[in-house]
Amino acid sequence: MYSLRIIRAKDLTKFYGQTVGVNEISFEVDKGELFGFLGPNGAGKTTTIRLLLDLLRPTSGLIKIFGENIKTNSLEIRKRIGYLPGEFSAYHHLTGYEFLRLLSKLRNDSFDPGLELFDRFELSQKDLYKKIKELSHGTLQKLGIIQSLMHQPELLILDEPTTGLDPLMKEVFYELMLEKQQNGTTVFFSSHNLDEVEKLCERVAIIRKGEIVGLEYVSTLKAKAGQNIEIQLKEPMEKLELPNATLIDNNENTYRFRVTGKWPPVLKKLSELPVAEISITRPDLEDLFMDYYREKTQQ
Amino acid sequence: MSYYKLIWKSNLGFTIFGMIFITFFQFLILYLVTTFDTQAILVSVLKQMPPPMRAFLDQSFFSLLTFNGAAAFGFNHPLVLALLAIIAISIPVRHISREIENGTLEMLLSHPFSRKRLVLKLWTSSVFILGIIILVSFFGSIAAIEIFHELSNEVFIKILIIAFNLWLLFILIMSYTLFIASVSRGGGFSGSLSAMITFIFYLLFFLGELWVVMKPTLPFNIFNYFQPQKIMLGQADYWRDGGVLLATGAIMLIITLFKFQRRDIP
Questions:
Q1: ipTM
Q2: Is B1 in the A-facing interface, judged by CB distances under 8 Å?
């Protein structure tokens, strides 16, 4: 249903002079979805996010958020969005409280100094009354996450949100994201941390050199991807090939294959080999991501 | 905390320094004028100078080193102008260029805070900060005249006009800096460019006053519309001067609003 579509980007293109930021990308994100935007640095993730927020003006294409054109209804749309930039920075001469109060004021909201989020992210009163320049990178990032969440936005746009957080705080963040999703908040977040995307997201877009090279449900991606098999042979072989499988990696006696077809021919071939050890695993998102990259580079 | 308060807090140190410096400078000049016979000393120095230089300086400074003239001279001293120029340039550079560079502007504009409101609030805050520095300096000058000499209604009004004229000049300098900051990529470039433009205007103004070939450039020079000596002598058309400065400042603001609306952040 169209009314449930929170983000709609169509043929979005951004050129910086002659350089391509993003080129004709299209995607849609539905209400309550946790959508991952994956790609290495410089792939176009931040450009896309800035286009969604109307910070960058697109060369061509259309963006609709909450069914409204960002170009014409930017202010109304931004009232309903929480945003965390990739490199979050705040005014160094202000305290954490003052900074949050400033942002609340920009939204015409009253600031609640007893936010539950402070406890969840273990941000003490002492931290909040310190000048921002005195805060550690991790504490600053917590402040960034809190400012994006404190007004209960309907859409969260987060650019590399867990950068600088310790593992414990990352878990708190993941929990919070899942809670938000259950409450109907839509989350669009970019990352190059595939573990967290795998943990949180239902659907991902993979961006490379400004173009979306994959847009799939994580489960579909994984189902398509088959399984990895690692074989250690007792003696090296000049060439090893397996049916229904592609060689990913070879290091002396150890071979890694991706099996995407039926297993019986593979097992039959394996029974003929001098196998010392064997292990079968599901490929993680990193493997899939690398597959997409390899595939597109070869093309 | 509002955006106005943020700007005020960010520039408070410089504002207080500016107020104290200019007021102290005015007191110092007026104290010196009452202590020494500066006019006699300077007239003898003047006599040793080449005629064009003498004609220029005679008109602009030394003949005015009467007590009241010195009060006007304090508002036109290169040190005072340089300090006010630094303040007028640094506010837009800090809140546009530097904030683009360090990401805080991106943070602000990701909120329901329009670019137009940001520019207007920044402009009005800068106008207020420059105004308060000049206002305090004005009262400092008035107090100094009253303490060391005698304050008449006529001098009060003339010093007020000079202070107002000075304020308009620096509103214009701040406005074109805001324009440069709003179209440039960020960093110190906009500050350097604006400072260079201001310095070139200042230099050309002196050349225009000294050198007949350069005289036609004067109507296009911002410093031509701030001449405290002429105000003191009752020779200035301060409505015209103020009007030109204000209109040019307003035009710069309108262009800035238009350009900033269309630019990419960052």
A1: 0.82
A2: yes
